[in-house]
Amino acid sequence: MREVPSIPRDSDFRDLIKDSIPFKISGYTSDDLGSCLEEWKPERLSSILSERRVSVHVSSEPNLNFVAKNFKYEYMTFSDLFWRIKESQKCLNGDREYLYYRSLGERPRKDPSNLSSVHPYLEETFKLPAEISRILDDSSSSIHSTVFRISQPGVELWTHYDALDNFLVQIHGSKLVILFPPSTLHKLSITDTSSPYRNICKLDMDSANSELLSAYKLAYKTVLNPGDVLFIPAAWSHGIHSLFPEDDSEEIKTCISVNLFFSDGQVEYASKNVYGNEDPAPMKRACDLLQKDFLNLSLQLPVHLQKAFWSKVASISLQYLNNL
Predict the structure, then answer these.
(1) How far apart (Å, rounded) are the C-alpha atoms in residues 21 and 4?
(2) What pTM was computed for the model?
């Protein structure tokens, strides 16, 4: 597994974005990202965001899995969120609950997320580094959403890909990120946009199957610390594990970050795409054909020829993939 390339802040990274190559820029300060780097501590956020009610993922397991749905959504205030994280960290492992929050839009099923829809304070204290803003302004891209995230250390978010490019900005705490190129979707057994595999960031190599191991040979990894910005290209699957801090003095231990998703003006996206995870229209149409028309064709055959049908479809698909 390779390290995600780190590039200097003054690099012209437009070609990396165009070629869908992940990269990391480190060393941003409050002058670049706003006062969030200094101010977004759990106690302060709990006080300011206080009684704002939000939907939170809650699980008895640290590995959240969207395919298995091993979590539930609970509405709670930010004060309750931080209090429950604090109380959970006092418990023995068997009694812990694991909480993860992802911001939603003002109308969750209709509007993409933005920081002001959570609380004006977030938008006032966060900004994109000037060089990133400048490149986005000069391109055909447009900002789709800004997503505010809070997770407790030990939580691993299910491996998934997004349909949009995005910058992940680490504000507080640290995260391990594993990224897989688009050519490995079938090796990760992706359903819709999510993989059923758990512990992707802490994989037991001795028990993993050969397909998953072959995906790891093409993967990248990096650790994000406050002031780091990671570019995650569209269709790059990624697993994210929130790390425990080396400094154990914090009473409430959290990982806090912001995603900025942006769309490519040359790609036809699904019109809804509220969360930025719906496949571009050509991909969606192809998947619909496979799951409906192709399926109906295969069902006209006896079982042994259905196996041949799908094996041949897979073979043709892999030929096109390998020729790219």
Answers:
(1) 9
(2) 0.93
